[in-house]
């Protein structure tokens, strides 16, 4: 598995260290073992997890800037992309959030086992977690394939600083950018760039949006639990 992981990372032109590779392989073993009794991901073979979770998550790495200090991953699931990127960026403080307790319990175990002091795991919903203290404090927002863009924007943008970046990852051909335009306007954000990348072995295309927060978010957002999903902006 080590050779497969390293070759995949090299194919997407990322540097790596032995420590990062070792931590990713430990993470892989923990995920496979935990997934055998508690469903965290439908992908169960190691090669599939490496490519479609680990390397997929690392497609975002090239857009992470050196001056970023705090990142939040909403709907992180089994830790994608947040846990993978936390392993790769030890100088960035990551908050990994999910409302499903079995997933956050697993992530806490991973962070403790790997000694990741830059990871905080939160079992909550974004609408409930946001406070005066953590509103607009994050340099970077992350989210992979959770909800439609016009919904996830309302969850994410209030956490991000002015001039901060949100990098949602989407499958190709969803067409969500156009229907999210109203939400972008209301939340004072704009899609700066759309990147297309391919997974190294299967060739599947992925879309990464670079969304810039241009001004402060009205404190009434996000609306109370359930409303962003039922009535997107």
Describe this structure in words.
The protein is an alpha/beta fold and 233 residues long. Helices cover 38% and strands 23% of the residues. It is built from ten helices and seven strands. A seven-stranded mixed β-sheet has the order 3-2-1-4-5-7-6, sandwiched between helices. Strand 4 (138-144), helix 7 and strand 5 (160-171) form a beta-alpha-beta unit. Helix 1 runs parallel beside helix 3 (46-58). The longest helix has 18 residues, at 18-35. The model has no long low-confidence stretch (mean pLDDT 95).
Task: Please write out the topology.
Blueprint (H helix, E strand, L loop, with lengths): L1 H10 L6 H18 L10 H13 L11 E5 L7 H7 L4 E6 L2 H14 L4 E5 L2 H4 L8 E7 L4 H8 L3 E12 L4 H4 L1 H6 L2 E10 L6 E9 L13 H4 L3
Parallel strand pairs: 1-2, 1-4, 2-3, 4-5
Antiparallel strand pairs: 5-7, 6-7
Helix pairs in contact: 1-3
Précis, in short:
The chain has helices spanning 2-11, 18-35, 46-58, 82-88, 101-114, 126-129, 149-156, 176-179, 181-186, 227-230; strands at 70-74, 93-98, 119-123, 138-144, 160-171, 189-198, 205-213.
Oligomer: single chain
Low-confidence stretches: none
Order of helices and strands: HHHEHEHEHEHEHHEEH
The main pleated sheet reads as: 7 strands, mixed
Number of beta-strand segments: 7
> How widely separated are the two ends?
44 Å
Helix content: 25-40%
Rg: 17 Å
From the helix content, strand content and strand pairing, which structural class follows? alpha/beta
Specify the overall morphology. globular
Strand content: 15-25%
Q: Please, how many helices?
A: 10
In order across it, which strands form the biggest sheet? Answer: 3-2-1-4-5-7-6
Kindly state the mean pLDDT as a whole number?
95
């Amino acid at each position: 598995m080590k050779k497969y992981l390293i070759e995949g990372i090299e194919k997407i032109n990322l540097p790596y260290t032995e420590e990062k590779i070792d931590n990713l392989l430990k993470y892989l073993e923990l995920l496979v073992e935990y997934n055998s009794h508690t469903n965290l991901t439908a992908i169960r073979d190691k090669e599939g997890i490496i490519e479609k979770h680990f390397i997929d998550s690392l497609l975002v790495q090239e857009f992470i800037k050196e001056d970023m200090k705090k990142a939040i991953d909403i709907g992180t699931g089994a830790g994608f992309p947040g846990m993978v990127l936390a392993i790769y960026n030890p100088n960035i403080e990551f908050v990994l959030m999910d409302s499903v307790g079995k997933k956050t319990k697993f992530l806490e175990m991973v962070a403790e086992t790997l000694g990741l002091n830059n990871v905080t795991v939160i079992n909550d919903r974004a609408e409930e977690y946001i406070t005066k203290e953590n509103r607009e404090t994050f340099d970077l927002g992350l989210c992979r394939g959770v909800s439609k863009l016009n919904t996830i924007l309302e969850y994410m943008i209030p956490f991000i600083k002015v001039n901060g970046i949100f990098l949602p990852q989407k499958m190709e051909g969803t067409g969500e950018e156009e229907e999210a335009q109203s939400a972008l306007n209301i939340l004072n954000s704009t899609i700066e760039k759309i990147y297309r990348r391919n997974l190294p072995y299967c060739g599947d295309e992925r879309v990464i949006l670079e969304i810039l927060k241009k001004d402060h978010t009205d404190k009434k957002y996000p609306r109370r639990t359930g409303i962003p999903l039922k009535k997107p902006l």
